[in-house]
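FAQ: What does a ligand-bound record look like?

Like this one, built around calcium ion:
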Amino acid sequence: LQLHGALSRVEGFGIISHRGAAALAPENTLAAMRLAFDQGVDFVEADLHLTADGVPVLMHDPTLDRTTTGSGAVAAHTLAQLEGLDAGSWFDGAYLGERVPTLEAFLDELAPTNSRALIELKGVWSDEQVASAVAMLGDRYLVDRVAFESFEVENLERLAVLAPEYARVMLTREWNRPTLELAAALKVSAIGARNEVFERDFALIDEARVLGIGTMVYTLNTPKQWAKAREHGIDLVITDDPVSLDEWRQSS
Ligand code: G3P
Ligand code: CA
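The answer part, i.e. the structure of the complex:
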């Protein structure tokens, strides 16, 4: 199996903390990321959307409504507008004052730690937008500590050209031989999907492995699910409970 770049440093069954320590703090905020860094799991996952003025910010949903005091599309707001929003109080009043972080602010928090990050590009990014984000990583010497994931084939292609040194994970809702062929053509390190997707045909996991492509499943939170994933040869697991998964991994 050829998990390149940052992913090659995962040994065995890799653990990825979903949206930061999202069970303990408001997802995709710096508070959630700091907690996840302290948990010491293999990777911290972050989602990125672009603002109206093209700035990458940590946000899962395409809209502001669920996790901030704003409303409407992230892409319809400038960074200056997002800076006035609260992104913590929806989760718990103790997090009042958390902001929507920029990618740059997240990377400034990540750089001095020992943690690694899996960064999802949501939506289709231009060459310039991909190049700008990659430059932020390069400025902080993060090439061995960051991998990218995306559902968008265009993003994966742009990353392959503009930042071939970074590991990439192809997210998919399809799971069949053409999926494997696409992943092989894109030269990604791994394919990522919901558990229900892999369940359609577990045998394809071994076929992917033969092609040198790993598999990443989301989002598994129970020992029963973790055991099944390991049994079927999944390489990477995104979880809301990385500490329990780490204990389980060490004891089983
Ligand atoms: O996106 C794939 C994986 O990162 C988990 O899904 O919906 O939390 O972004 P989601
Ligand atoms: Ca994600």
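Follow-up question: can I read anything off the structure? Yes, for example: The mean pLDDT is 95.
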